[in-house]
TrEMBL record:
<feature type="signal peptide">
    <location>
        <begin position="1"/>
        <end position="28"/>
    </location>
</feature>
<feature type="domain" description="Cadherin">
    <location>
        <begin position="29"/>
        <end position="135"/>
    </location>
</feature>
<keyword id="KW-0106">Calcium</keyword>
<dbReference type="InterPro" id="IPR013164">
    <property type="entry name" value="Cadherin_N"/>
</dbReference>
<feature type="domain" description="Cadherin">
    <location>
        <begin position="136"/>
        <end position="244"/>
    </location>
</feature>
<dbReference type="InterPro" id="IPR050174">
    <property type="entry name" value="Protocadherin/Cadherin-CA"/>
</dbReference>
<keyword id="KW-0472">Membrane</keyword>
<keyword id="KW-1003">Cell membrane</keyword>
<dbReference type="GO" id="GO:0007156">
    <property type="term" value="P:homophilic cell adhesion via plasma membrane adhesion molecules"/>
</dbReference>
<feature type="domain" description="Cadherin">
    <location>
        <begin position="245"/>
        <end position="349"/>
    </location>
</feature>
<dbReference type="GO" id="GO:0007399">
    <property type="term" value="P:nervous system development"/>
</dbReference>
<keyword id="KW-0325">Glycoprotein</keyword>
<keyword id="KW-0732">Signal</keyword>
<comment type="function">
    <text>Potential calcium-dependent cell-adhesion protein. May be involved in the establishment and maintenance of specific neuronal connections in the brain.</text>
</comment>
<dbReference type="Pfam" id="PF16492">
    <property type="entry name" value="Cadherin_C_2"/>
</dbReference>
<protein>
    <recommendedName>
        <fullName>Cadherin domain-containing protein</fullName>
    </recommendedName>
</protein>
<dbReference type="InterPro" id="IPR015919">
    <property type="entry name" value="Cadherin-like_sf"/>
</dbReference>
């Protein structure tokens, strides 16, 4: 029982101790006390007395259990509990502790155990001028072509000084000479870079080599300095400088990478050939740490790991690499190496609320609520949450790593009805780990689109004399909505022309938009008409649109030609007089006719159907002109006489009659018997044909006697060439 009770007390004691530790931390001063000491101060040297800063008396230190604690295993300070004095426990080397970092600060805490209380403090280590500038290469070789023009600048290796501030490297000097002077340039990180500037053109034949002494001086008191030999070899012409593919290479390498791992590979190109185009790689202005950590292949440009990396000591390296060709020209690039901390836990996402169906046209609507977490610490435990950029949603951070997913702009179902959203949670560790959570949001329809016709106007062609209920065409409208919101009903709208009997002309199928002619159309009565149709959806409220329909009636050849001249009244025959001296081609008369149709159906052509003497007259096909084909002979008088006799006979079926006046003709008419009058009459019949190619004709039908064979042969032989210029039946 006692052992069991003892085990129960241990957790309770730990809880009490943790409570007091947290209470002491809460009471710790937020502003640390600052103390300073010069580096290389002897061990045991007095630093400061803490009684006043702690606000305690001498006797209280031992009672309250005061002691000094700091990060790490090494104790750089010792504390006298009796007097409150703080002493150095060892010599402090600022360069070893902080390197180039300035100010160099060592944080420590003063712990009072009874009651528990913390005091934050910092010890600043002041730099002294205990290091001279050092050239890592005692001899600096420059190969300079003789063709280089004066004013050209050459970068040379700088010196390294571990001190900081005014004790660091401050100036360079060069030995007097005729060809070069020294130019100092400040880099972005405050480092002074020496540059040689060519004053006078080089002549390899006059002086193939130049030796100069470069001196580096710091700003300490007294100043420290060191020298290096700059040996310049004058080369023959080489006019292309090596150029790196990139001026900045950025690489990341895990801190647990093994020795020999390839960190990066740099590549430079030189357009020259031969030795002037051969490139070698080397470190440029590299610190001792970089030379210890990395190894560079002079031929391949591979940057390899020489020793293990430690992220907690150095997080980044900036490596300057110089590419030099065989002619001495060089170019530089920078390799920025980032040491990556280990990260072995991916983030986690917990969904609290999810709405996966949203009506369109809503804005600022909540879609989801979720939280993210990562069991790692530091950057490896910090997370970033994102979604795709091309979505109408945005993430809104909330408290305690909670996020809300909200609609940023109104959704349009007709544009996109479904969204696949990928929530990506990435930690800030190296390498970065991430998880992706996919959600699908469906957009429900709202009746916000009216039906749209495929055309703003439709033109339909219907041939006249159509059968009733003929399908003459269709209109079509679509609605971008869905469901009942997209169901379209068609209707005829009241015509703008109140005299148009639209209801008796056409009808429309309400479901599919088919248009039908309700009766037979007559082109001669109605050539065209137009009306408007409407399309209405079944949404709430209903939306509608309209389109114009224009119906053009096409002509059919349903009207025969009508003869206007000569008049055909069925009783009075037509009479035409021909002068006796009429030449071939003389205009006898002109038949005038019209057709009620249009277009080609109204085009008329004329032809001579029958004549008492076929060779005597001809009719022009396009204008109906009847002309003589040759000179009149005796045969014409004979035929004219016969025609007069026959013309007196009546025929009920005749459409028109032709007659010749009785009695003597005027003297100017043809007289083939020598009496200066026509001894016979001549008659002809003209056929009218429509232009549509039908077999409908309109005839002038006089009485036609029989021909005398011998007379007919003479007529045909009289003027065959002129007869060919007319149409004959």
């Amino acid at each position: 029982m006692e052992a069991g009770e003892g085990k129960e007390r241990v957790p309770k004691q730990r809880q009490v101790l943790i409570f007091f530790v947290l209470l002491g931390i809460a009471q710790a001063s937020s502003q640390p006390r600052h103390y300073s000491v010069a580096e290389e101060t002897e061990s045991g040297s007095f630093v400061a007395n803490l009684l006043k800063d702690l606000g305690l008396e001498i006797g209280e230190l031992a009672v309250r259990g005061a002691r000094v604690v700091s990060k790490g295993k090494k104790m750089h300070l010792q504390f006298d509990k009796q007097t409150g004095d703080l002493f150095l426990n060892e010599k402090l080397d600022r360069e070893e502790l902080c390197g180039p970092t300035e100010p160099c600060v060592l944080p420590f805490q003063v712990l009072l155990e009874n009651p528990l209380q913390f005091f934050q403090a910092e010890l600043r280590i002041r730099d002294i001028n205990d290091h001279s500038p050092v050239f890592l290469d005692k001899e600096i070789l420059l190969k300079i072509p003789e063709s280089i023009t004066p004013g050209t600048t050459f970068l040379i290796e700088r010196a390294q000084d571990l001190d900081v501030g005014t004790n660091s490297l401050q100036n360079y000097t060069i030995s007097p000479n005729f060809h070069f002077h020294l130019n100092l340039q400040d880099s972005l990180d405050g480092i002074i870079l020496p540059q040689l500037v060519l004053n006078r053109a080089l002549d390899r034949e006059e002086q193939p080599e130049i030796r100069l002494t470069l001196t580096a001086v710091d700003g300490g008191t007294p100043p420290r300095s060191s020298t290096a030999l700059v040996r310049i070899e004058v080369m023959d012409i080489n006019d292309n400088v090596p150029e790196f593919a990139k001026l900045l290479y950025e690489v990341q390498i895990p801190e647990d990478s093994p020795i020999g791992s390839q960190v990066a590979i740099v590549s430079a190109r030189d357009l020259d050939i031969g030795t002037n185009g051969e490139i070698s790689y080397a470190f440029f202005q590299a610190s001792e740490d970089i030379r210890k950590t990395f190894r560079l292949s002079a031929k391949s440009g591979k940057l390899l790991l020489r020793q293990t990396l430690d992220f907690e000591s150095i997080q980044t390296y900036t490596v300057n690499i110089q590419a030099t060709d065989g002619g001495g020209l060089s170019g530089t690039c920078v390799v920025f190496v980032q040491v990556m901390d280990l990260n072995d836990n991916p983030p986690e996402l917990t969904m609290s609320t999810l709405i996966n169906q949203i009506p369109e046209n809503l804005q600022d609507t909540l879609i989801a609520v979720f939280s993210v977490s990562d069991p790692d610490s530091g950057d490896n435990g910090r997370t970033v949450c994102s979604i795709q950029d091309d979505l109408p949603f945005f993430l809104k951070p909330s408290v305690e790593n909670f996020y809300t997913l909200v609609i940023s702009t109104a959704l349009d179902r007709e544009t996109r009805s479904e969204y696949n959203i990928t929530i990506t949670v990435t930690d800030l560790g190296t390498p970065r780990l991430k998880i992706q959570h996919n959600i699908t949001v469906l957009v429900s329809d709202v009746n916000d689109n009216a039906p749209a016709f495929t055309q703003t106007s439709y033109t339909l062609f219907v041939r006249e004399n159509n059968s009733p209920a003929l399908h003459i065409g269709s209109v079509s409208a679509t609605d971008r909505d869905s469901g009942t919101n997209a169901q379209v009903t068609y209707s005829l709208l009241p015509p703008q022309d109140p005299h148009l009997p639209l209801a008796s002309l056409v009808s429309i199928n309400a479901d599919n938009g088919h248009l039908f002619a309700l009766r037979s159309l007559d082109y001669e009565a109605l050539q065209a008409f137009e009306f408007r149709v409407g399309a209405t959806d079944r949404g709430s409220p209903e939306l509608s649109s309209e389109a114009l329909v224009r119906v053009l009636v096409l002509d059919a050849n349903d009207n025969s030609p009508f003869v206007l001249y000569p008049l055909q009244n069925g009783s009075a025959p037509c009479t035409e007089l021909v002068p006796r001296a009429a030449e071939p081609g003389y205009l006898v008369t002109k038949v005038v006719a019209v057709d009620g149709d249009s277009g080609q159906n109204a085009w008329l052509s004329y032809q001579l159907l029958k004549a008492t003497e076929p060779g005597l007259f001809g009719v022009w096909a396009h204008n109906g002109e009847v002309r003589t084909a040759r000179l009149l002979l005796f045969l014409l008088s004979v035929l004219l006489f016969v025609a007069v006799r026959l013309c007196r006979r009546s025929r009920a079926a005749s459409v028109g009659r032709c007659s010749v006046p009785e009695g003597p003709f005027p003297g100017h008419l043809v007289d083939v018997s020598g009496t200066e009058t026509l001894s016979q009459s001549y008659q002809y019949e003209v056929c009218l044909t429509g232009g549509s190619g039908t077999n409908e004709f309109k005839f002038l039908k006089p009485i036609i006697p029989n021909f005398v064979a011998q007379g007919a042969e003479r007529v045909n032989e009289a003027n065959p060439s002129f007869r060919k210029s007319f149409e004959f039946s």
